[in-house]
Each structure stands twice: as C-alpha cells, then as structure tokens.
Amino acid sequence: MTKHAPQPISIFDPQIMRPALIESFRKLDPRTLWRNPVMFMVEIASIITLATFFMSLAGAGEEPAWFTGLVSLWLWLTVIFATFSEALAEGRGKARAASLRKTRTEVMAKRLNKPEFGSDFTVVGANQLCKDDYILVEAGELIAGDGDVFAGAALVNEAAVTGESAPVVRESGGDRSAVTGGTKVIANAIIVRITANPGETFLDRMISMIEGAKRRKTPNEIALEVLLIALTAVFLLVCANISPLSVYSVRAAGQGSPVSLTVLVALFVCLAPTTIAALLPAIGIAGMDRLFQKNVIALSGRAIEAAGDVNVLLLDKTGTITLGNREAVEFIPVGGHTDKEVAEAALMASLTDETPEGRSIVVLAKQKYGMKAEALAADAETVTFSAETRLSGLNAGGRQYRKGASDSTAAFVKSLGGKSIPGDLEAVVDKVARAGATPLVVSCDAEILGVVNLKDIIKGGIQERFQQLRSMGIKTVMITGDNPLTAAAIAAEAQVDDFLAQAKPEEKLRLIRENQAAGYMVAMTGDGTNDAPALAQADVAVAMNTGTQPAREAANIIDLDSNPTKLLDIVEVGKQILMTRGNLTTFSISNDIAKYFAIVPAMMLSVYPQLGALNIMGLATPMSAILSAVIFNAVIILLLVPLALKGTKFRPMPAEKLLINNLLIYGLGGVIAPFVGIKAIDMVVGLFV
Ligand SMILES: Nc1ncnc2c1ncn2[C@@H]1O[C@H](COP(=O)(O)OP(=O)(O)OP(=O)(O)O)[C@@H](O)[C@H]1O
Ligand SMILES: [K+]
Ligand SMILES: [Mg+2]
C-alpha cells in the first residue's frame, strides 16, 4: 500500500503556533467562552481584578495597585493559556481543512438530461448538482459530487480525499459503487447518480469535522463538565462566605484587616478545577486529530470515546475481512451435465447482473469457452440480486436462468416443480465452501446444472491484528450472508473468535441489539448496503471508504484506508482520550491541597498570627504566597498542553492495574507538584515582594 496521508505537521510549528496565538485572543469573546463555564468564571474573575486594579490606581483599593495588577494579569493569562491550548489542538486540522478546500476547486459537471442517454447533457457547476441528478464523468475529469456509479466501471484516483495514490476500481452494482466528489476518473467513463446536495458532500462533512465547526460535546465530556461546574459552585460559595466571616473575625480578634476582594478572587480561581477545565476541549479535539493522521475521519467525537470501551467487534466478511473482489474461477457440473452447460446457463443468468460477481462470470465464460453475450430478446426480464433472496438471474426465450446461494437456488428450483436435487451437488458445494470460496448454484428452469466457484482472498496480516484485539479484551465476530461452510473456513483462516453465517441485514441488526442489551459496547465494520442498518445501530460504526454510499452515511467513522483492523487505532485513541481526561482531572483536583497551604495562612495571617504555622512551604510573604499560587495555577496549564494534545500513552494492561498506576502518577504527582512549583516561584517572586 502506498503510504501517504496528511504529512505530520508538528503542533509547535510556527505555521500552527502563530494563528493559534491570534485565535486564542479571539476565543476570549464571552459569547463563545461561556461554553466552558469554569473558564468563563475565571474570565469574570480577571475582569473584576482588572477593575479593582484601576480603582486602586485611583487610590480606592484595599491592596496595593501593583499586587492587584499582577493578580489580574495572571488570571488573564490563565484564560489565555486555556484558549490557546484549544486553538493549538484545532490548528493542524484547520491547516489541513484549508488544503482540502483548495482541492475542491470549482468543478464542472455534465448533467444528463436522461440517465439512459450518455450523450445528451448540459454542463453545469458542481454547486448546481442535486440529489438524484445523473452526471457523465469521462477519463481525466473530476467527479463533481458524491454519488453511486449508475452505469459503467472506471479507475478512480482518490488521492485528493484519501491521500492514497493507487487508483481504485469503482463500478455499478455491488459494494464498490460509491464515488466521492473531488476524486478523478483516470480511465473509462461512468454515469454517476448524485447522492448528496451541495454543501452536504463527504468532503464538506470532512472539512467541517476537521475544523471542529460541528464538534459537539460528548456525553462523557458533559458529565465531567457538570462535575467541574458543581465543584466550582462550591468553591464560589466558600469564597463568598469568607468575606463576612473575616470581617467578623477581625472584630472579634481586635486586630488585622479583612480579606480583600483580590485575594478572595485569587483563592477562588486557585481552588476551581481550572487545569482540567482549561485543557478539556483540547483533549477531545487533539484525539480526533490524531485519528485523522491515521486516515480515519470521525464524524462524531462520541463514537471515538465509545470505541475506548468497545467489547465486541462485528465485521462483515466480503470486502472487510477479504479483499472483496469475489471472482468466478471455475464452472463445476453436477448431475451428469457438462461444464459448458453450466457456463452457458451461468452466463445467461449473469448477462444483466451488475454486481462484480455477475460480471466476473461473464468474463470467465468468455475466457474459457469463448462465449459471447448475445443480444437479449425483447421479452428478457432481469431478476436482480438482493441480500434477501440471495439469488439473481434472467428470464429469456421462455427459460428461467438462475444462480445463487445453494439453499436459495434449490428452493427456487423446487418452487418450479423441480424433481430432485442432483446427488453430487452437496459434495461439490461443500468442497468449494470448505476452501473458503463462495459456491453459487446455477440452474435453468427446474434443473440444477452445476456450481460456480467464486474466490476471494483474505487481507494480509489480519490474524495478528485480531490477536491484538483479543488481548485488549475485544471479541471479534464475523457476520456474513455467505453459507456456514465458507464462513467457517474464512473465520478459521482469519482467526476471528466467532461467526454468524447466512445473515440477512435484519439478522446483523438483531445480533447488535442482543449484544447491546447484554450491556456490551458494540463496534461494527462494514462496507455494503446490507450492512447499513447494523451500522446505524452500532455504538461505533466504521465504514470502509471503498464501501457503498448507504454504508458510509450510516457510519459515524470512516476509514479512508478501508482497513478493518483500523479499529485497533480507533480503540487506542478512544482509550487515550478517556484516560487523559481522567488523569488531568485527578491532577487538577489534588493540586488544591498545596494551594490551601499557600493561600489560607497568607489570607488570615493578619487576624490570626498563629496560622503562620500552616505556612509549611515557608513562603516569603503573604502577597508572594498568593501570587505564587496564582502563577503556578496558570503555568501548569501551559506545561500540560503537550500531554493534553498527545494523550496519555496507552499500554494494554488490565484495567485495575492501569487505574492504580494513574492514581499514583497523577494523584500523588498532583499533590506534590504544586508544593514544589509554588515554592520555586515564591523564591523568585519573594525577591521583589
Ligand atoms: N450476484 C449474485 N447473484 C446471485 N447470488 C449472489 C450474488 N452475489 C452473492 N450471491 C449470494 O448471496 C449470498 C449473500 O450475499 P453477500 O455475500 O453479498 O452477503 P453479505 O451479507 O454482504 O456477506 P459478506 O459478509 O460476505 O459481504 C452470497 O453468499 C452468495 O451465495
Ligand atoms: K485551579
Ligand atoms: Mg457485504
């Protein structure tokens, strides 16, 4: 596979840094900042201290102007570090979205006046194309919008969207019929039925997702935010009560001065969970960005986080576990018929079959026996393949030609009054199936003639990846419409944990519902239209980019590389996001202990000199202590930005062990770090204060 994809730009690249810096000031606008309530409160605190600073300049402050001014400055920096981390997380995505936009230059389209007539068209701009328009795209032309190939087959270069430079086949019928606007036809011509209105195309969705324009908070994020708001409210109440309490204490003790507004505000900001609140948006955005680097487009943040908790992964067989170009390789006669008879009937049954399987039968009949597709009789009637019937064919010249899954064809033949099923059929079907290939049984009228052997190949290196999933505690289940023997053979070769054969779309759906009802988080990877209902139901729905339009629409994650084991990376990023968030919350909250020791004695020292005993850090002066705590509170955000963006390193290990490790590092670290940090800052600040 040619490796490609978004070239990694470092987040510390000036190309990302500079716009992020500007953006971080723009994000100070209260109309957007209120979405992060804790940081919004810090902004209000900054405004209050700034106003107090101006009042003290005019000689009306409780504290010296320089002190209030410095506190205000560092509170502003606290907010700016928060908006900066978010802007930085968005930076790479924005740069990439801009380059995607560039590829989406104004494309012209040949809109057909009637879908059947490829020569009768009007040239229009891509933005005039609507759903259900038909367009003709010839070699060398860009496809103007998302759609399905309605007729023909072509080689398409999708590099503009996927970064993959090797061209892919896109053809009508089957699971490889979807085309993406902005990609280029390099050989042959196709007629495309447009499936997306302007502004709603895959490229549009991709750009808006990458830019974060449509990013919604995930349920996990909201839950954490509710906790943070509750904590903040408690601290707000505590601080508000300190003021009357201190006035009372001063009166009772007969000495000292009450706590000033500046100090109260400083205390509030230091105790509020600002570290996690500041970095919370960046953690989620950066996670999506890391996935995008792996060529995965997540259309919802919720899906990625759900991936962090996945227990069961369901995979479709053809096109997901196997390469998906099932090809006819052999005609095998049964019941005393000849292979030529089988080939003839199979050819007839495939003449108007638009699926890759059908086309490959026509090709094989031609290669092997030089058979040609003859002009169809006027009364010819196509029986199109469906996942429900598992049968396709043609009624022509008074005869009914069929091919399909063995039980389906057998049932059809019986319904026509067919005598008996040839005795050797079962053995032939079994032999083909046991080799992991798909047997299609061919019939003409009420008689079964033989079997077509459809071969498919398992994607390389898939076994080790399933092994990794297993070690992460994720069960893999293959679901296929194919017969149980073929399914068993492929399942054994690919080493999935379990499989479900002869599954119709509603059975795929049911399996997911059952697993969900049992309390499992279910991921599904698929590519076919018949996978779409199941994809829509799954918690994590990954569609192959090579898949059909309905599959891509039902999914919430799209893998541009169409690699079913990409789920491993998605799970990893999901776990990283959840862990990073948890770790920074632990850190943020355990930080408070040191801040109590820094601020509380400093605040009340003038009233109760014995509180000096609490100054275990030996901070220089009360003002230096308060300033140092405020500075540490701001600087720690900046220091943790790299961790928030890169995510906690993920190592597969048992959940309890992981939890203990993290508690030790971030809990204990969170208690100790500020003692050291505040003391160090105080040693410098104390020189001046
Ligand atoms: N063009 C066709 N004409 C007739 N029968 C077909 C055709 N294509 C497939 N079949 C039969 O229908 C069955 C189910 O179709 P298909 O394999 O597409 O289902 P699926 O659920 O998508 O499974 P998979 O996991 O393999 O993609 C096949 O196993 C085969 O027996
Ligand atoms: K804080
Ligand atoms: Mg399929």
TrEMBL record:
- Name the GO terms of the biological process aspect: potassium ion transmembrane transport
Quote any Pfam family the record assigns.
E1-E2_ATPase
UniProt cross-references to InterPro entries, sorted A to Z = ATPase_P-typ_cyto_dom_N, ATPase_P-typ_P_site, ATPase_P-typ_TM_dom_sf, ATPase_P-typ_transduc_dom_A_sf, ATPase_P-type_domA, HAD-like_sf, HAD_sf, P-type_ATPase_bsu_IA
Q: Which keywords are on file for this protein?
A: ATP-binding, Cell inner membrane, Cell membrane, Ion transport, Magnesium, Membrane, Metal-binding, Nucleotide-binding, Phosphoprotein, Potassium, Potassium transport, Translocase, Transmembrane, Transmembrane helix, Transport
Indicate which residues the UniProt annotation says bind Mg(2+): D527, D531
Which coarse location class applies to the principal site listed for this UniProt protein?
membrane
Q: Which family does it belong to?
A: Belongs to the cation transport ATPase (P-type) (TC 3.A.3) family. Type IA subfamily.
The subunit structure is: The system is composed of three essential subunits: KdpA, KdpB and KdpC.
Protein's recorded name = Potassium-transporting ATPase ATP-binding subunit
Encoding gene per record: kdpB
